[in-house]
């Protein structure tokens, strides 16, 4: 797992050092196999992309499919950054077809001096061909480092390119990356720009080539926020009546922060979004930030419009500067006691911030390229934010005092949590056993072989204890109302009689003390009734894991059990159904008149039934909780478990159609 950058002490910010060239490490070689020239496979043109699409777009699932649109839109955005484009139209057409049109200069159509064909054709048929490799076409560019257009072409069943250069209209069609006819003139025009229409190849995207409207809308809105003044018009024409959204934000990332707060229903602590920006050499940076009344931070960073979920030098520079500013402000106005320091987590409680940098050459790190590595960016962002934010606070003392007071409250809560944590440790050390009294542990000690069921209610817990496989299955019953951690600081979590047993049983601790190497069970399975109360229990537990033990979700340890809703019997034949449709199908297969039992709760099942339907690895159905989009997950938990009613009502009304088999 890629670790978040650690907060540094204000006096410990290191100087930039030149570490020289970083080379790849050596790997072990298996000398037992023959390896000669015949083993070398040469993939011509775009064949390599079709052979290993995951190397270029991450996956051939929904994420990779939507990335095709992102790559084409990013090319138009780059044209906007260069100052030649102010409108981009993105259309979803029937048949899973996408059309992207911009009013930029149009891809150059002249003959490429080296390739001997149109430069536009080169862009779509040759990897690493484009105007983003030092030729002066683009000073700043995002995307897949220039390979985007050719990769999209290679992974499309067909792609049509139309270029307008102010005099003529040029057209060319490709099929799975190949073309029969050269780029040719098909008309005259005084307009300029590029239109790309393509259909993703179902041979590559076997799961589905259907685009999700909300996923694309989120991406396009994000790009409109990051590029103030650029107009992106998104139209869905797939279902008869056109659905059009006009995205243009002259306020840029300031409006991004406001949108986040409005979407999540968060109350802000100051009327205005704080905004700072600056330019130095080939670097530009802008930061928008505002505090709200929640206990959670949300810092989103971008480099050349590319989201960097793992942070990097730009985000580290911002966080260091923010911590130093708030501390220096407190010292300057005698608001801090001698020797007292606010930590980064204190000054970022309730903060929403957008950090966006643009530079000529981005250096991305990590397996997923989700972290900016340019070392020179950190001191640039740090100096910019420190100077301008300090000036803002001194000119706006009311806002400054509000931010400072919230930071101090967070510090007090952190210290209270520390005391509660130490008290919990001392209490555990004095007890005869450190594990919860209601935990029925397993005998196996290898976490890779064990699993724990967190079960709602003593009755179901009793059945689970009797029906389990004692060697590798542990049972922890929960009872009573659980704490909603979305509305509570960490100091209230320690010592909570409903959550402490979970923390103790898992063995990892929480928050800053979390240590996944101490996890006692490889699978943590939430087992609750299939009703409103059961859903609430699951949501409360998932909120707790997300806020205080997130690596458990990120590394795939959290599951949800799926108990059946019906028991269908005819004579000695017994079947279990997990939905109304499945129940009806089982009845039809058994021939009609059957006895049907509707399970209202886990407690209605005897140990044998619970084992057979919900706990036996050979027959059970469990759902693995994944975290594909941490920002979206954060937003969902805030809406569902926060204080505001209206955002929650809107969320439920929008998503109620997708809920099945829920008793109200």
Describe this structure in words.
By secondary structure, the chain is α+β, with helices and mostly antiparallel strands. It folds into three domains: 201 residues, 2-Layer Sandwich (Heat Shock Protein 90), CATH 3.30.565; 162 residues, Ribosomal Protein S5, domain 2 (2-Layer Sandwich), CATH 3.30.230; 172 residues, Rossmann fold. It is built from 20 helices and 23 strands. The strands form five sheets. The protein has an eight-stranded mixed β-sheet. It is globular and about 80 Å long. The two termini are 40 Å apart. The N terminus is likely disordered.
What does this entry show, briefly?
The chain is of the alpha+beta class.
Features:
eight-stranded mixed β-sheet, Ribosomal Protein S5, domain 2, 3 domains, 664 residues, Rossmann fold, alpha+beta, five-stranded mixed β-sheet
Question: Termini separation (Å)?
Answer: 40 Å
* Dominant shape: globular
Number of domains: 3
- What's the overall average pLDDT, rounded? 84
Q: State the CATH superfamily name of the largest domain.
A: Histidine kinase-like ATPase, C-terminal domain
The CATH class assignment of the largest domain is Alpha Beta
CATH topology (fold) name of the largest domain: Heat Shock Protein 90
Question: Within the largest sheet, what's the order of strands?
Answer: 5-4-3-6-2-1-7-8
Q: Name the structural class.
A: alpha+beta
Secondary structure: helix percent = 25-40%
- What is the oligomeric state here? single chain
Which range does the strand content fall in? Answer: 15-25%
Number of helices: 20
What is the CATH architecture descriptor of the largest domain? 2-Layer Sandwich
Number of strands: 23
């Amino acid at each position: 797992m890629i670790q978040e950058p650690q907060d540094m002490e204000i006096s410990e910010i290191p100087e930039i050092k030149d570490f020289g060239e970083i080379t790849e490490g050596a790997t072990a070689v298996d000398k037992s196999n023959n390896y000669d020239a015949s083993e070398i496979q040469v993939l011509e043109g775009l064949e390599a992309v079709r052979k290993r699409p995951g190397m270029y777009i991450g996956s051939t699932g929904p994420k990779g499919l939507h990335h095709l649109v992102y790559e084409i839109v990013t090319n138009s955005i780059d044209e906007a950054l260069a100052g030649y484009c102010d409108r981009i139209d993105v259309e979803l057409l029937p048949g899973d077809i996408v059309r992207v049109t911009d009013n930029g200069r149009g891809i150059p159509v002249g003959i490429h001096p080296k390739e001997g064909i149109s430069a536009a054709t080169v862009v779509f048929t040759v990897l690493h061909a484009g105007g983003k490799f030092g030729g002066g076409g683009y000073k700043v560019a995002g995307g897949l480092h220039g390979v985007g257009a050719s990769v999209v072409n290679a992974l499309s069943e067909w792609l049509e390119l139309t270029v307008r250069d102010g005099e003529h209209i040029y057209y060319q069609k490709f099929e799975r990356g190949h073309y029969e006819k050269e780029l040719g003139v098909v008309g005259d025009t005084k307009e300029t720009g590029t239109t790309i229409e393509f259909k993703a190849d179902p041979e590559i995207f076997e799961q589905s080539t259907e685009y999700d409207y909300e996923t694309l809308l989120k991406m396009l809105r994000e790009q409109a926020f990051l590029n103030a003044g650029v107009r992106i018009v998104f139209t869905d024409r797939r279902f008869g009546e056109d659905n059009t959204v006009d995205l243009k934000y002259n306020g840029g990332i300031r409006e991004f922060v406001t949108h986040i707060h409005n979407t999540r229903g968060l109350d802000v602590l100051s009327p205005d979004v704080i905004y700072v920006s600056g330019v130095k050499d080939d670097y530009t940076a802008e930061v928008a930030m505002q505090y709200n009344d929640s206990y959670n931070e949300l810092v989103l960073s971008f480099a050349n419009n590319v989201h960097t979920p793992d942070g990097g030098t730009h985000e580290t520079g911002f966080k260091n500067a923010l911590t130093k500013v708030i501390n220096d402000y407190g010292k300057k106005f005698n608001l801090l006691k001698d020797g007292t320091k606010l930590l980064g987590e204190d000054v970022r409680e309730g903060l929403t911030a957008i950090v966006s940098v643009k530079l000529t050459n981005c250096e991305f790190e990590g397996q997923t390229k989700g972290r900016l590595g340019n070392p020179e960016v950190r001191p640039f962002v740090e100096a910019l934010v420190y100077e301008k934010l300090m000036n803002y606070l001194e000119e706006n003392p009311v806002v400054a005092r509000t931010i400072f007071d919230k930071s101090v409250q967070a510090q007090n809560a952190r210290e209270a949590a520390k005391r509660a944590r130490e008290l919990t440790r001392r209490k555990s050390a004095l007890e005869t056993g450190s594990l919860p009294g209601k935990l029925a542990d397993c005998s196996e000690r290898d976490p890779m072989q064990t699993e724990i069921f967190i079960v709602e209610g003593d009755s179901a817990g009793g059945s689970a204890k009797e029906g389990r496989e004692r060697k590798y299955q542990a049972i922890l019953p929960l009872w009573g109302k659980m704490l909603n951690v979305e509305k509570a600081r960490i100091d209230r979590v320690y010592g909570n009689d409903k959550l402490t047993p979970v923390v103790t049983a898992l063995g990892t601790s929480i928050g800053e003390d979390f240590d996944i190497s101490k996890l006692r069970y490889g699978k943590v399975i939430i087992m609750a009734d299939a009703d409103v109360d059961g859903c609430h229990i699951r949501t409360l537990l998932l909120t707790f894991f997300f806020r205080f033990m997130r690596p458990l979700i990120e590394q795939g340890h959290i599951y949800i059990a799926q108990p059946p809703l019906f028991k269908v019997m005819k004579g000695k034949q017994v079947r279990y159904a997990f939905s109304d449709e499945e129940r009806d199908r089982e009845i039809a297969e058994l021939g009609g008149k059957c006895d049907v039992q509707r399970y209202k709760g886990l407690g209605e099942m005897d140990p044998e039934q619970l084992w057979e339907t919900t706990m036996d690895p050979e027959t059970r159905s469990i759902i693995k909780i994944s975290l594909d989009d941490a920002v979206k997950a954060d937003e969902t938990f805030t809406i569902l478990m926060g204080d505001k009613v209206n955002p929650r009502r809107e969320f439920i009304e929008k998503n109620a159609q997708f809920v099945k088999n829920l008793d109200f």
